[in-house]
Amino acid sequence: TANPTYYNGRPFLDQIELRFMTTPEAAIAALTRGEVMGFAERWGTNLRAIDLPGEEQRIVLPADEYTILTFNLRLPLFQETPLRRALALGLDRDALIETTINGLAQSIDTPLLPGTWADDPAIRLPPADPTAAADRLAEIDFEPSSDGIRQRGSQRLSFTLLVDQDERRLAVAEAIAAQWRAIGVEVTVEPVSSATLTDRLRRGEFMAAIHSWTRIGPDPDPYSLWHSSQANGGLNYAGLSDNRIDTLLEQARAEPELVARAELYHAFQQRWLELSPAITLYQPMYVIVSTANLQGRIFADPAFAGQTLFGAEDRFRDVQRWFINTFRRIEGDLP
Length: 335
What we know:
Number of strands: 13
Number of helices: 9
Largest sheet: 8 strands, mixed
Low-confidence stretches: none
CATH topology of the domain at 66-284: Dipeptide-binding Protein, domain 3
CATH superfamily of the domain at 66-284: Dipeptide-binding Protein, Domain 3
């Protein structure tokens, strides 16, 4: 119910009713029948082909989470920065997004969400280039063997990629294995339960792994994910230990001025890409569909296009501005 003393003025709508459905399909059916005026869904898989009887309003926003491929830097193989950078160069993330998750995500280049205050849009991974990636592997003496898999002496360029059994991430893992196989890297995908994945990541019992970070929030503070103090039993699963990274993260979380903090995070992004302890893969999209007469949503304004949605509840950020677009028709007898 509208709060008449709300600090920013009384909301336009007198009341909003939230209806809870047992399945996304039931919610979409209610939207199609006109029983509800809007439905929002992470990934938006069920909303791609929805066809409402009247005009509709569709808003697509990146969510504050991302999926990442982490290397275990404790292993001799992945202690080589040129190898990690070559693997990143040989991975076409845009193709992954299109072929495995139907384009319902956007690529992300560093652990800081694109478009947010902490991100520098000029600091990005170079475009995927499998030929250049193969050349870089050759530069560090990994040459193709008789079966096409690269080898340096007796060391075969082969490793296991750990992933949970989520259908979407499993498909991504298989697609990554196929892409890297084309440049002579042998990847065996190992699906495990979510609990097992988390446990093995914390104990460092993996070679490479795909996992996700969610609810990043408007203040990224990646200290717990990349500071060396968090490498053993913490969330720094890669085991990254770099004095420059440590200093930047310590200074950033202690700096009160936003502009100065942003500059520290920009330097962190640059150093993180130089080291490439992981490959950030994609950021999922949140899809909101509503009837066209529900107006006043700032996210529908082109000026707000691409703004990050900080948690599903953030879709109500502008709820006090919503209104129903109506008109009055006067009827009567003509003289």
